Amino acid sequence: MNLETIIQTVVAESVKTLYSTETPLNQIQIQKTKKEFEGDVTVVVFPFVKIARKSPEATGQEIGEYIVKNNPQVSGFNVIKGFLNLSIHKSYWLQTLAAIYANDKFGIKTPTATDATMMIEYSSPNTNKPLHLGHIRNNLLGFSIAEIQKACGWNVVKTNIVNDRGIHICKSMLAWKLFGNGETPESTGLKGDHLVGKYYVVFDKAYKAEIKALMDKNISEEEAKKTAPLILEAQKMLLAWEQNDPKVRHLWETMNGWVYAGFDQTYKQMGVDFDKIYYESQTYLTGKEEVERGVAEKSFYTRDDNSVWADLTGDGLDEKLLLRADGTSVYMTQDIGTAKLRYNDFDIKKMVYVVGNEQNYHFQVLSILLDKLGYAWGKDLVHFSYGMVELPEGKMKSREGTVVDADDLMAEMIQTAHETSLELGKLENCTADEIINISRMVGLGALKYFILKVDPRKNMTFNPAESIDFNGNTGPFIQYTHARIKSVLRKAVDQGINFGTEIDNTLAISEKESYLIQLLAEFPAVVKQAGDEFSPALIANYEYELVKEFNQFYHDFSILKEENQELKKFRLQLSASIAKVIQLGMNLLGIEVPERM
């Protein structure tokens, strides 16, 4: 039974005894006592004032006296207006630390075969360009959410849908065919995804030139965009692809192969992975079959030009295109097919799409369409809608080649971490291999933490310069603190100090030390809340708070130089437990923590 439940139970007993009233535990409000007041746990007294028929202060006094008299874990209390602040006996915190120290997976549940399955989709790249900064936020959020849900007891399937077909893919293919002169990743030294992305930009520039030329002939911009030779040729190529033209299919397979090899390198460096990858080219036909069934069952309708639509005006939306007049499918068609295949493949209890907030409408429509097709799980889909990420310079545009490439950004972060760490003397006494590995951990940790500490639903600006700082709310600050604790623990072992034995429960510890244990004890609740709210930011900011409090403790208290051997042992156990929770929490964010710096 956790402390909150213990306090709720004794408060309920006191109210029943004092005022002859039964109170459900979930209606008893428990808070962490504010730092400016004495105490560990605060009970909100106002709900009991009416039944007590006394002032908030008098009611709090009566309940406090009852609790201290009847619960040995509460050592004292004070009342501030309508708030009852309870002080928890130091022996309780020592027992709590012992349990935390002994549990290598403290706060982390291990799913069993009988636990429900949650599928989490993230990444969802197009094969016409490399991954960029926006994809980094998506991948980091998706991976972290998956790890957090696992820690909450879900069986998690991490999945990716690769958008490997469509007009945008044909644009890169056509540009390479017309202007590529047979270039390959091997002949250019470029990663495959970078090479293909280069031709996506080439297409856009050539297409814009054609539009301008047509407009110079007094053709409207709208008409020019529709009739430019390049876009007509790309549309022709898409139709040929859907008709299984062998030459178009061969080019498509070749260029996609280049991209997949590039993606794999990027994912590995980023530290994310997937349990199952779906490809639009393999799911859109299922989607078309579902749409055609919807037409037959009168859920959807066909217009005179043979295009297929869903009328969603009755749902407060508009009409949605599902199949174009030439029979080619749209994103929605693919997502319908992918959803069906996923539910065929896995016994999914909850399906979560990690996709930016610009797609809110898309997933609102998808949920309604699946429901219209008779799938009971349609309306249970979760769109985890996150905000956009930009650089201080502003928004990025793929077609114009102004995106921040994920590979380049990660390399830059690692290099900056290396230079900063050397400059600050953080890598002294490290081997060459350790320097390389620590620089990678710190660079990527800085990037990941800076992105994940922000409320995911908010737009954010990523500032590389601010992220690599060994002070403040940053990844490197937390990583360095972990390494500092590990250094202390190594020294203790070298000095022959055995700090793994049981601590005397009567040991006198400071308020700061009991507060640190209380903070550690909150970790399981933070993990649960992060799972409930799909928010890695809750984990990140908890980690920062824990590290900040430890550093204050480290500055004010002796550990290895403490003369009281029992107190020294306690402080080493406390430090080891904090290092463990730092590592467990950072792992939920996909961030590694170094053993030494």
Distance between the termini: 38 Å
Mean pLDDT: 94
CATH topology of the largest domain: Rossmann fold
What is the name of the CATH class of the largest domain?
A: Alpha Beta
Helix content: 55-70%
- Spatial ordering of strands, largest sheet: 7-6-5-11-12
- Our count of domains comes out at 3
The total count of strands amounts to: 14
In one word, what is the shape?
globular
Reported CATH architecture of the largest domain: 3-Layer(aba) Sandwich
Describe it for me?
- The protein has 597 residues and is of the alpha/beta class.
- It has 3 domains: 3-88, Arginyl tRNA synthetase N-terminal domain (Gyrase A, domain 2, 2-Layer Sandwich), CATH 3.30.1360.70; 122-390, 3-Layer(aba) Sandwich (Rossmann fold), CATH 3.40.50; 406-588, Isoleucyl-tRNA Synthetase, Domain 1 (Orthogonal Bundle), CATH 1.10.730.10.
- It is 56% helix and 11% strand.
- The chain has 22 helices and 14 strands.
- Strands 7-6-5-11-12 form a 5-stranded parallel β-sheet, sandwiched between helices. A 4-stranded antiparallel β-sheet has the order 1-2-4-3.
- Helix 15 (406-423) packs across helix 16 (432-452).
- The longest helix is centred in the middle third of the chain and has 25 residues, at 246-270.
- The two termini are 38 Å apart.
